[in-house]
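thoughts on these tokens:
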Amino acid sequence: MLGLSSLWMTAGSMLFALVGALRLPRAAVLDSPSKRVRVSLPETLAAGTAFVPPGRSMAVFRDEDGVFAISTVCTHLGCIIKPTAEGFECPCHGSRFAADGSVTRGPAPQPLRWLKVSASGEQWIVDEAAVVPAGTKVNA
């Protein structure tokens, strides 16, 4: 049988736990950007030059074989890589990638992901959630 002081301690602990639970942050549902992005490539974009749409983690290219897109998320730890004259470089740990996404210097363990591209009139639709085999291009 519990004594009066033990009963008060138990009730106090339960009340404290209840108040704490009520103060927990509520789950916030944030709007996430669509994974399918419409991209208009600049007319002045030179063949083989990366076009990075503002606010997106992808680079879109146009060359003589077509249009393709590569993820700009480093395969090492997920940092956003930056375009360079030779391809891409990760500012976090120094991984380097060729323009086709292949690793030229680690620690990145895998090449960059190629993303699905489809044509829609004068625009291109890039699906950031759909990975395609490296080298997959859509005729321009």
User: Anything to note?
Assistant: The helical segments are 4-22. DSSP finds one helix and nine strands in the chain. The mean pLDDT is 84.
